Amino acid sequence: MIVRYWQPFHEIETIRQQLDNIFEDLTPTATDWIPEIDLVDAGNDYVLEIVLPGLKADDINIEASRKSITISGEHTAPEVTDDKQVLRRERRYGSFRRVVNLPVAIEHEQVSADYTNGILTVHVPKAAEVRNQVVKVNVADTTAG
Question: Which domain holds residue 49?
Answer without folding.
Answer: 29-78+91-130
